[in-house]
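Our preliminary data section would be incomplete without showing what the modeling component actually yields. Below, a chain of 129 amino acids is followed by its predicted structure, encoded as tokens that our downstream tools consume directly.
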Amino acid sequence: MGIETQQQYATLAEILKNLALDGAFSLAVLTDHNGLPIASSDGDQAASEAQSAVVAQIQNVVIRALGNISMSTPDEISLNDVNGRKLVCRQFSGGDGVVYLAVVIPNRMKSYRKAMNMAIRSIQKVWDS
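Predicted structure:
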């Protein structure tokens, strides 16, 4: 079952806005397996598309690299920058396939898993409704 109504899209955007606010994340974006944006905590469509494309490229590179060393698809990828920020990408089943939830954490020492897990459960409920 996929996202079929404007209300479902609005609910997903609200979940991501709350995730970003509650987790003190600078960004939360949900993408499909092709890197196309589904929803974002940021209402800027162009920015959401660019952020989604970056998430998809990171996922593809990591998956290819892990395949070269006989590891399966990761459920989480995180990258830290020299300024202390962290990008976390989580893969999960949603709708008719695999989707990715990515957040940017301004302080890499901040916990994020509980907030992301709660958001993923909420997102999956939207698809199941």
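The chain has a mean pLDDT of 83. The chain has one domain: 6-128. Preliminary results of this kind motivate Aim 1 of the renewal.
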